[in-house]
Amino acid sequence: MRTFVYVDGFNLYYGALKGTPWKWLDLPALFARVLQPHHDILKVKYYTARVSGTLADPSKPQRQDVYLRALQRYRTEVEVYFGHFLSHTVRAPLAQPAGNVRTATVIKTEEKGSDVNLAVHLLNDGWLDVYDCAVVVSNDSDIAEAMRLVRQQHGKRIGLVTPGNRGVSRQLLAHADFARRIRTGGLQQAQLPDPIPGTNIGKPSRW
């Protein structure tokens, strides 16, 4: 079965990878383990945004860049698409108000574009008939309508893979033909080689 996998990168990171030693992840190898053998994984589309360094961790952008270069060099079926971060100031209530001070001005940073990009590609690829089954790796309910349209209008099978042990979005599950989870054992068994063969690209030491 021709299968395309659509990965919400930040959902995957915060749901299954943060705080683990398994960030040097071979995405096609992972999904080959998660899905049944009849799935022929033709493409893995990975949606993320460029991160910025912080005072506590200024090397975050370099680690992300090394990982993405390693992934695409080793796995030609992987395509990476970028959204962006948007920061703005908002007034927010204090968890512990002090006297008459009940709110504070804070900087709110949000990742924008990844869920939209994923949904648009999911729909367009279905219309182009490049897959028989689309597997969505996310727990973001904003993608539910795209899943519904692909399933009902294009007659495609839809799989849902949930990162980690969080509760599964009911909105997404309603439009999925099957559902799977990403387990720690699967992450451990699906790591990129270090270094990437034929290159000097190696896993960052802090990872």
Overview of the structural elements:
By secondary structure, the protein is α/β, with parallel strands linked by helices. It has a single domain (2-93, 101-189), classed as 5'-nuclease (Rossmann fold, 3-Layer(aba) Sandwich). Helices cover 32% and strands 31% of the residues. It has helices spanning 9-17, 27-34, 60-74, 114-127, 144-153, 170-173, 184-189; strands spanning 2-8, 40-48, 78-82, 84-98, 101-112, 133-137, 157-163, 178-182. It has a six-stranded parallel sheet, with helices on both faces. A two-stranded antiparallel sheet has the order 4-5. A hairpin with a 2-residue loop joins strand 4 and strand 5 (101-112). Helix 4 (114-127) runs parallel beside helix 5. Mean pLDDT is 90; it is low at 84-88.
Q: Mean of residue pLDDT?
A: 90
Fraction in helix: 25-40%
Helices and strands, in order, run as: EHHEHEEEHEHEHEH
Relative strand content: 25-35%
What is the CATH third-level topology name?
A: Rossmann fold
- Major β-sheet profile: 6 strands, parallel
The number of helices is: 7
Number of strands: 8
CATH class: Alpha Beta
Gross morphology: globular
Quaternary structure classification: single chain
The strand order across the widest sheet is 3-2-1-6-7-8
| CATH architectural arrangement | 3-Layer(aba) Sandwich
Count of distinct structural domains? 1
SS-derived structural category = alpha/beta
Termini, distance in Å?
35 Å
List segments where confidence is low: pLDDT < 50 over at least 5 consecutive residues: 84-88
| CATH evolutionary superfamily | 5'-nuclease
